[in-house]
Design brief:
By secondary structure, the chain is an alpha/beta fold. 47% of the residues lie in helices and 14% in strands.
């Protein structure tokens, strides 16, 4: 999440609304980003969360694809991956206000498309969500005294919603669980969520992803076209220098 910023208006209005649990468990409307264009000519949030990893997978494809020895990709998505915030006509979300949510939904789409195209070659992809964690990044968004005021509320909310994992250790529950599974046995349309009870016990729950495979395939083809464009641009730049 490059350049995270807190929407104070949403915070204070949400604290006294019926959506307080949803707001804190997904950060929807609560955290915003000042998206910008990078030196590569791409939107920063999209390049950071989606396209950079896609290029890495493309480069590692010969090592990852072995039908006799399955490989597993595990993506970190979010409960805030909203279909309404993603559009095939603007995959980088250059015209929208929710680049983080859009990029996480794009990850869900990409994971499904990778399974569709690479399962026969031994490459499997899954998606996890770590839940709401308090990390060095999130602590830097707010002054320390604000966190002192918020933490009792957040701890209380754990009894009403399982998304408040709070620590990175708890947040890795689904990731570690997935690592120990046979990748070919996993449902490619399922998101695996780290969850924590009000008393601090960790477990894994699942959620069917709100997407269709045709959209996922179209998005994957768009990424391939964008990759070609970027590689040509880089080659031209190298030749000129």
């Amino acid at each position: 999440m490059p350049n995270p910023q807190l929407n104070f208006r949403a915070l204070f209005s949400g604290l006294f609304s019926r959506k307080v649990i949803h707001m804190f468990s997904t950060a929807e409307g609560l955290l915003t980003q000042e998206d910008k264009v990078t030196a590569d000519g791409l939107q920063e949030v999209f390049e950071t969360n989606v396209f950079g990893h896609f290029i890495l997978i493309r480069e590692l494809e010969p090592l990852l694809c072995h039908s006799n020895s399955p490989s597993q990709l595990i993506w970190t998505s979010s409960r805030n991956a909203r279909k309404s915030n993603f559009h095939l006509e603007d995959i980088q979300h250059s015209s929208g206000q929710e680049p983080y949510s859009s990029s996480k939904y794009a990850i869900d789409l990409l994971s499904v498309a990778l399974n569709r195209n690479f399962n026969p070659r031994g490459l499997y992809s899954s998606v996890v969500c770590p839940g709401t964690m308090v990390t060095n990044m999130t602590c830097g968004i707010l002054p320390p005294f604000v966190w002192t005021l918020l933490m009792p509320i957040i701890w209380l909310l754990r009894f009403f919603a399982n998304a408040f994992t709070l620590t990175p250790y708890n947040g890795t529950e689904a990731l570690v669980w997935l690592f120990h599974q046979q990748p070919e046995s996993l449902n490619p349309l399922t998101k695996y969520l780290s969850a924590t009870t009000g008393f601090g016990s960790n477990y894994v729950t699942t959620q069917k992803m709100d997407l269709d495979e045709d959209t996922a395939e179209k998005f994957y083809q768009n990424l391939l076209e964008l990759e070609k464009h970027i590689r040509v641009t880089i080659q031209k730049t190298n030749n000129q220098s």
